[in-house]
Amino acid sequence: MRIAIQGELGSFSHEAALRMAKAVGIESATVVPYAISADLFRGIAERTVDAAVIPIENSLAGPVAEHYDLLLDRDVWIERESLLRIRHNLIVLPGTRIEEIGRVSSHPVALAQCRRFFEQHPAMRAVPFYDTAGSVKQLMEAGDRSAAAIASRRAAEQYGGEILVSDIEDNPANFTRFFLIRQAELAGREGGADKVSIAFTVENRPGTLVEALKIFAQQGTNLTKIESRPVQGKPWDYVFYVDYQISAAANADAVLADLRSSCSMVKELGRYRTAVIDLASADL
């Protein structure tokens, strides 16, 4: 099975992809990195890859807006979700001492989640980079002992770096939610699904959003997430992305039927089981 990720090998997406593959009984998945998310979705459409694992939101940094837009725009289906504890590590060339380090690279979100570490080490300058694992790859290629990177343990293993300081994130309750997605016509429909993701739009007039949201309460479903994104080419119009929990498939179908009778557009994005925290990766 070929599973696409956005970013370099060794990233948190790489870790999530391997964990999700194992959870569905696949022990030998090949992870295929893409630099751009749109290319990853194109790989699914062209069947260059069998599936993809994408981050959709972080418990501290919030949603990955581009991925919401692509889920709506492309013909894909969410098969599964997972939660991965994000552990940031200071990674260096083997043998580097902490007093040698003058700059530290990583993705801007990772840097922002390690502010306390930088306050404790004022000689270190934070340098934004396009990817956490990519910052380790670049560090090892450059061979610069005055530099370091912040990334996952897997990134250090992938590129031969040494973890000098582990778990440097400010907040240990740092989780990223990932989706496993496939081309819609090839996707499996997981038995026992208790969660649904949808997107919908309403007419831009008073009360329409309230009426749409009432449907979830009337059907006895638990609304767990709502996110809004602007409609491309229509300033001040919005798409609403919603996750809701269900007790049976008929429950999900009833919500969708009622929404379709009152909304301008409704798209079901996937049905899957609610993820639970992997205690092996948590250790809070």
Task: Give an account of the 3D structure.
The chain has three domains: 2-84 and 174-187, Periplasmic binding protein-like II (D-Maltodextrin-Binding Protein, domain 2); 89-165, D-Maltodextrin-Binding Protein, domain 2, CATH 3.40.190; 195-272, ACT domain (Alpha-Beta Plaits). The two termini are 32 Å apart. The mean pLDDT is 93. The radius of gyration is 21 Å and the shape is elongated. The chain is an alpha/beta fold and 284 residues long. α8 (208-218) packs antiparallel against α9 (249-262). The chain has ten helices and 15 strands. Strands 1, 2, 3, 4, 5 and 11 form a six-stranded mixed β-sheet that branches. The protein has a five-stranded mixed β-sheet with strand order 8-7-9-6-10.
Identify the notable features of this structure and list them briefly.
alpha/beta; D-Maltodextrin-Binding Protein, domain 2; Alpha-Beta Plaits; 3 domains; 5-stranded mixed sheet; 15 strands; elongated
Structural class estimated from helices and strands: alpha/beta
Give the beta-strand count. 15
Number of domains: 3
Following the backbone from N to C, one meets helices and strands in this order, namely EHEHEEHEEEHHEHEHEEEHEEHEH
Oligomer: single chain
Look at the structure and give the CATH class of the largest domain: Alpha Beta
Mean pLDDT: 93
According to CATH, the fold-level topology of the largest domain is D-Maltodextrin-Binding Protein, domain 2
Proportion of residues in β-strands = 25-35%
What kind of sheet is the major sheet? 6 strands, mixed
Distance between the termini: 32 Å
CATH superfamily of the largest domain: Periplasmic binding protein-like II
CATH architectural group of the largest domain: 3-Layer(aba) Sandwich
Cα-atom radius of gyration: 21 Å
The gross shape turns out to be elongated
Low-confidence stretches: none
